[in-house]
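User: I'm preparing a small set of examples for a lab meeting where we compare how different chains pack in three dimensions. I only have the primary sequence for this one, and I'd like the structure in token form so I can line it up with the others. Please keep the answer compact; I'll paste it straight into my notes.
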Amino acid sequence: MAKKHENSNVWPLIEAQRHAVADLLDGLTDDQWATPNTCGAWTVREVAAHLTMGWNVSMPKFMLGMIRHRGFDNFNLAAGKKLAERPAAEIVADLRANAAHRFVPPGAGPEAPLTDLVIHGAELREALGMEPATVSDATSVVLDGLAVPQKGAPFPLKDASGLQFAATDHAWTSGSGARVEGPSHQLMLALSGRLDAIDQLSGDGVELLRERSR
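Assistant: Understood. Below is the structure token output for the 214-residue chain.
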């Protein structure tokens, strides 16, 4: 069942996920680094670079960048592309060297960077034709957060009432009502706004989830 997690338990998960993403990226070919990500906006290289943004962009630069680019989304894309200009090996080394970094977005807890890592890690694996990551404690933490929408969260699902989410690859459920079930990585992608991932889910609540995610 979904439950709250102590922040102190989340930091080791973040560190492990950064190392996992670095391991995934290490040794990719130039063509693989240039592969379009499944969300369409970035390449694998730009997604990887985006995951180093927390310690490479100071808060003053972040605020100025949002003003210059007229909003977070535009700045986020621009910053990711700029950071991706570095050599691939440097991006991988940056992730490893800062695996224990405790950056969090303003007003958020460590669940935010963990969610970013796990979701982008799932997208990278999908784009590269790799098997999904093994289900871990990080999976449950991320699913718990996504299944109970928070005010101000960047994801499109704002109302999960009347829906029950269930993973088919480990013992995790959240909510009650019309059922939406599927593999953990597809649930995470769907709940974070990937409409195509909803097609991979089943249950009598799928259409309601699709409607609320638009």
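A couple of notes for your slides: The chain has twelve helices and three strands. The beta strands are 163-167, 173-175, 178-182.

User: Perfect, thanks.
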